[in-house]
């Protein structure tokens, strides 16, 4: 697995000018923590360096752990993972945003095909992708209620009782 | 139906219900005469919320659910998931199990590519090829049934191994079936490359250059038909692909015909692999023990589905229930290619171009609930569903 | 000609009921043959009849925004045209019910009327698939009409007559014209398939693209009538081509044998090819079909002119 190491090294080189915290979570993975300011430059660095392709955008909902007695509950966060693949190596750009300001810059300017992935994240997690070209519904029904994001942990279905339906 | 929209564009809707689509998806093609000037896609008609559902089931139950993401490439989903969980748990399935996983994966590829060949031929109005390839596809279905008792959801995988063994009798049956199919595929290769009308419909249609394929993030045979050397089986060998390697198949033409050629050549490669695995099947156990609770951590598992790269992202929080299962299916990657190269082609080419990427709608859509107009209740019990059905048809 | 006999001709034999029955039988034979070529089982013998009965029993839905008079009238006109054309051809190997000098041209136009009706029906319906289907139908009408007509003119010139029964008689007493005019015969067979929108010339009703083409919005009676009209056209087309090119039709046995053999050929061709795009269909006709037919005609004129 010499290639893996080589690919990961080159990714590190591409990302190092941005001064991002890098870590190796597995032998074939490189994780880089990015912020709203560095996400686009980091993606651009990988793309300009012809480092693989964007394979997936994964959303994660990380609710704050239940607060101990007397403490104020911590804030819920969401994480968006941009997984770039190059051969066997995977580089992940991780960005964490709070519930109060779920805004992530869109990378469609650099990778136009990311639009479908971004639309999925917008629908499923309610994260605003600033500057994404198309925000039409992609997967959910047209009459899906606003403000309900199915892949957030707090969503557990609409309940067995019909909501807002006459005679039910 | 309004033929003319207010902007004066003539929009032809294809789907969600349309004879060209065997599964529901919705496309809008803006046409000028016969020429397509714009395309857009809307998915989600078979969204079943599998990713959400996975967060409510334990690791073992999910194994069976992810297999139901797709009816055509069910085994690869289960393999990707099992590999991810094994990665998290820090175990490796025994070599014999890995070889059987590869064997079934290749048989599934044969079944999927032959199915695609038929569908694509049908979209091009070549029903004879459709009927023939589907007739021959029955052979591989029968072989899969002989292995595991199922024609569609094979359920071969377990966490930490496989369920079914291949004995000598079965191996002989597989060899015979593969020999027959190889002969048939040579015939199909001749048809798709020499049949005048068929070539007329596929050659130089839907051309995508290597650069475009890179840019649009195409995967699988669609990308390889444009000369992109991207195949997870080679780039990042999983199961036993290191021991039984595949040859990379690419084609530089980048048109619809190349997509046919690449897929049929991949079939040859699968036949060769199946024989090789049968001849050199490693001995040993079929399973190893996997703990019920999976240690906390994240895993990325990538496999090459018949349609291209399939990516699973698993996150465990140390319990017996996953924290997050993210599935990125190959069809989703390829939509952008189709929307891109559709423009400028004739409407008549659209069904074939759509079929050209071998779209799998249920793979894209992994949805949430039964959702009917307004916020009607969603989680229906089986009994309620039954009652609803009875009442509906009364 | 007395009135009862005319009525009999029109309604029972050879027009009317008999012709409809023939059409359904030939449709079944065509479907069965194609199915066999494709390694399928195919429909049972009464399937086309069952289809028609079912359609006739169903509600006919007239979509909003169409001229309902035209919508209802077009299928009737189409069937009427096809039935009328049948009176001029030696149906079932018998003497045509109604024959006059120049009936070849009339029959040709009547057969085109059927296609024209389909096209108009599509254009009348305010539906995207229908509109595109109608455009394609009419485009195809213009492309196959000329070669098919030229192909049928060949035997007419040889016989020196515009009368179908005279040409038939000429064909009977001479060498089969498929031997003397092979190009014309080929163009005629393919032209017939184009006329009937059979695969691979079925772009106007390509179900994977435009659902059912011009007839997408038709249901019930209208659809049944269009189907019947098409079946009749199939019988007439087969009759004309075999009468002209395959040594004429002097008795029912010849009629059955020759038309069925011809059907076998067209069914084979149907299952051999992928569907042509409409531009390919038109291109093929004008570049090849029309030229070949003209060439054939030229040869014939030279041949006749020198009195050979």
TrEMBL record, chain C:
UniProt entry keywords in alphabetical sequence: Membrane, Transmembrane, Transmembrane helix
Signal sequence interval, chain numbering: none
Membrane topology: Multi-pass membrane protein
Database matches in Pfam families: NADHdh
Transmembrane stretches, start-end: 6-26, 61-84, 104-123, 144-162, 174-193, 231-247, 253-273, 285-306
GO cellular component: plasma membrane
Compartments, as annotated in UniProt: Membrane
Domain of life: Bacteria
Protein name according to UniProt: NADH dehydrogenase
């Amino acid at each position: 697995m010499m290639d893996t190491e080589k690919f990961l090294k080159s990714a590190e080189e591409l990302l190092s000018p941005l001064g991002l915290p890098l870590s190796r979570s597995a032998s074939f993975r490189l994780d880089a923590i990015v912020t709203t300011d560095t996400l686009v430059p980091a993606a651009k660095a990988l793309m300009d360096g012809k480092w693989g392709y964007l394979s997936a955008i994964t959303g994660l909902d990380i609710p704050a752990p239940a607060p101990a007695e007397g403490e104020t509950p911590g804030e819920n966060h969401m994480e968006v993972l941009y997984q770039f693949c190059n051969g066997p190596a995977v580089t992940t750009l991780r960005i964490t945003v709070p519930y109060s300001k779920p805004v992530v810059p869109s990378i469609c300017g650099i990778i136009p095909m990311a639009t479908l992935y971004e639309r999925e994240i917008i629908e499923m997690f309610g994260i605003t992708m600033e500057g994404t070209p198309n925000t039409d519904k992609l997967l959910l029904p047209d009459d899906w209620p606003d403000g309900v994001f199915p892949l957030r942990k707090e969503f557990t279905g609409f309940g067995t009782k019909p909501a807002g339906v006459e005679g039910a | 139906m309004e033929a003319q929209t207010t902007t004066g564009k003539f929009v032809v809707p294809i789907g969600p219900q349309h004879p060209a689509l065997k599964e529901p998806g919705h496309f809008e093609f803006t046409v000028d005469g016969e020429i397509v000037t714009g395309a857009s896609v809307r998915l989600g008609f078979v969204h079943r919320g599998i990713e959400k559902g996975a967060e409510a089931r334990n690791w073992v139950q999910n194994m069976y659910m992810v297999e139901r993401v797709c009816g055509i490439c069910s085994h690869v989903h289960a393999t990707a998931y099992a590999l991810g969980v094994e990665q998290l748990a820090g175990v490796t399935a025994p070599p014999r199990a890995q070889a059987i996983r590869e064997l079934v994966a290749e048989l599934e590829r044969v079944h999927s590519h032959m199915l695609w060949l038929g569908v694509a031929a049908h979209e091009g109005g070549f029903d004879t090829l459709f009927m023939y390839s589907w007739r021959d596809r029955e052979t591989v279905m029968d072989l899969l049934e002989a292995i595991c008792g199922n024609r569609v959801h094979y359920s071969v995988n377990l966490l930490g191994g496989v369920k079914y063994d291949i004995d000598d009798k079965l191996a002989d049956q597989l060899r015979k079936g593969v020999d027959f199919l190889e002969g048939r595929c040579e015939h199909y290769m001749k048809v798709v490359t020499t049949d005048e009308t068929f070539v007329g419909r596929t050659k130089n249609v839907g051309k995508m250059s290597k650069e475009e394929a890179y840019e649009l993030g195409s995967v699988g045979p669609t990308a390889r038909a444009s000369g992109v050397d991207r195949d997870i089986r080679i780039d990042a060998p999983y199961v036993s692909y290191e021991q039984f390697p595949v040859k990379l198949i690419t084609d530089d033409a980048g048109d619809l015909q190349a997509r046919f050629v690449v897929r049929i050549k991949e079939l040859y490669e699968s036949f060769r692999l199946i024989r090789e695995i049968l001849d050199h099947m490693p001995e040993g156990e079929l399973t190893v023990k996997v703990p019920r609770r999976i240690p906390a951590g994240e895993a990325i598992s990538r496999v090459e589905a018949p349609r291209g790269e399939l990516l699973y992202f698993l996150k465990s929080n140390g319990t017996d229930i996953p924290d997050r299962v993210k599935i990125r299916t190959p069809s989703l990657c390829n939509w952008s290619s189709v929307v891109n190269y559709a423009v400028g082609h004739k409407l008549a080419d659209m069904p074939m171009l759509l079929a050209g990427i071998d779209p799998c709608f249920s793979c894209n859509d992994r949805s949430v609930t039964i959702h009917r107009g307004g916020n009607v209740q969603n989680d229906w019990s089986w009994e309620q569903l039954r009652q609803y059905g009875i009442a509906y048809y009364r | 000609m007395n009135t009862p006999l005319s009525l009999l001709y029109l309604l029972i034999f050879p027009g009317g009921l008999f012709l409809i029955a023939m059409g359904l039988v030939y449709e079944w034979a065509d479907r069965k043959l194609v199915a066999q070529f494709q390694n399928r089982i195919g429909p049972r013998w009464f399937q086309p009849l069952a289809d028609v009965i079912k359609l006739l029993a169903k509600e006919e839905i007239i979509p909003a925004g169409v001229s309902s008079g035209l919508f209802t009238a077009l299928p009737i006109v189409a069937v009427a045209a096809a039935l009328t054309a049948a009176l001029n051809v030696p149906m079932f190997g018998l003497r045509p019910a109604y024959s006059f000098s120049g009936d070849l041209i009339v029959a040709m136009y009547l057969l085109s009327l059927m296609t024209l009706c389909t096209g108009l029906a599509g254009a009348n319906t305010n539906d995207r698939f229908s509109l595109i289907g109608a455009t394609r139908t009419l485009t195809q009408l213009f492309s196959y009409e000329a070669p098919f007509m030229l192909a049928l003119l060949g035997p007419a010139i040889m016989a020196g007559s515009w009368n179908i029964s005279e040409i038939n008689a000429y064909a009977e007493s001479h060498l089969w014209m498929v031997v003397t005019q092979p190009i014309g015969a080929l163009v005629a067979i393919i032209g017939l398939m184009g006329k009937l929108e059979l695969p691979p010339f079925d772009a106007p009703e390509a179900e994977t693209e435009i659902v059912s083409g011009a007839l997408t919005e038709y249901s019930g009676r209208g659809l049944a009538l269009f189907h019947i009209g098409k079946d009749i056209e199939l019988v007439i087309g087969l009759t004309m081509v075999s009468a002209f090119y395959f040594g004429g039709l002097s008795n029912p046995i010849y009629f059955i044998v020759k038309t069925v053999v011809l059907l076998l050929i067209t069914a084979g061709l149907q299952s051999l090819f992928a569907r042509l795009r409409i531009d390919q269909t038109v291109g093929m006709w004008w570049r090849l079909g029309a030229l070949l037919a003209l060439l054939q005609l030229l040869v014939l004129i030279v041949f006749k002119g020198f009195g050979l």
